């Protein structure tokens, strides 16, 4: 098969041709490496290449022995690590210090056991706290649909790489929209699982009071489902774990759902300036499509989504987490950290976190529980199977949109981040599974995602509906201009 033909295959199809002998894992890796070397200078999404190690791993591979055996892959440069290999968190001091990981994380080990061949890592915003991947360490990562626009964050490098078909699938994680927002910006499938679905160990018990979940960037629903099977499951010492599914998630995608009753939030929360016309069009079109499939969509959603305390509570927990992370980073570097080490937004969060009193932090955690109960009770009491919202209030903004401008207070950049993540952050707080699907393209040629949210532990229902929508309105033929 030609290189371009291979690039257009999803991870499931690539694994199948390796298993059948139609192509070898080495051929897939060579094609992906050639594509990275050709397109990455413009996209700037792949760092820390490990091509020689990848080829050595291929020699020990048994085709067909694992779900993704022989499929090229990229790890995200945040949280999950491979022992002896570099990491930077998107931060120049770590990059300059050439630090390497002491341990292999559980999720990284599961990816390797699934047969995925890691060719390198993907870029992230500094310490993962922005929705655009632009750093002093690595420069700006660009959206394949328009190189002047953001690819998202914190999994922006992963989204750019998968959308541009450098690899068919890549590691990602989500603590406030970091899978779903890049997926929406880059036209991908982005699933955030239920709280506790995958382990953050052994380095972390949890991250930011349970906000973070592990996953992937994918172009197909079946890849997202199989990847969830790969990473899911309790590991010793995990503080919580989601209930195991009745059957593998990969089996869910072949079973269309029964007719569903779906609530919809077609406006922004009351404290938000509002969604734009393209996001509204995406919802209307999705509503019509769902109706043709036999589903009923009604305007109804949890009243808690209008509670403005979401930004305050989320901000306190994240800021306190960054302050603690600064203590860890200082110990790793063996010196105190100063404002000169950081971009203004990251330093603002660290300083804010240092001022958060313990009682205020605990109050934010208690509000998380209040919000989680309120949203869970909406599903339990209302009779709705799912909730539909925009993933983001608009398509990807130009690069620089989330940066602190000259003579601008950092809080102004924070407000822009809160506005863009208004529909994603609530589900990290609630711990509910949510998926972004690439169901709309703007007149300017940028993707917009539509988000579906399910009750706790019901990723299977999300995946069944997502696969049905993918079949009814397929997006696999869409190719960003950079792919040409």
Outline the biggest β-sheet: 8 strands, mixed
What structural class should be given to the helix and strand makeup?
A: alpha+beta
Number of domains: 1
The number of distinct helices, counting runs of at least 4 residues, comes to 17
Give the CATH topology.
Amidase signature (AS) enzymes
Q: What does this 3D model show about the protein?
A:
The chain is of the alpha+beta class and 484 residues long. It has a single domain (3-303, 388-483), classed as Amidase signature (AS) enzymes (Alpha-Beta Complex), CATH 3.90.1300.10. The chain contains 17 helices and 15 strands. The protein is globular and about 55 Å long. It starts with a helix and ends in a 12-residue tail after the last helix. The model has no long low-confidence stretch (mean pLDDT 97).
List the helices and strands and how they pair.
Layout: H1 3-8, H2 11-20, H3 25-43, E1 46-47, H4 51-59, E2 72-76, H5 92-97, H6 106-113, E3 117-122, E4 134-135, E5 139-140, E6 142-143, E7 146-150, H7 156-163, E8 169-174, H8 180-186, E9 189-192, E10 213-218, H9 221-231, H10 249-252, E11 261-264, H11 277-292, E12 296-299, H12 309-333, H13 344-355, H14 358-382, E13 386-390, H15 410-420, H16 425-430, E14 434-441, E15 447-453, H17 459-472
Parallel strand pairs: 2-3, 11-12, 11-13
Antiparallel strand pairs: 1-3, 4-5, 6-7, 8-10, 9-10, 9-14, 13-15, 14-15
Helix pairs in contact: 3-4, 7-8, 9-17, 12-13, 12-14
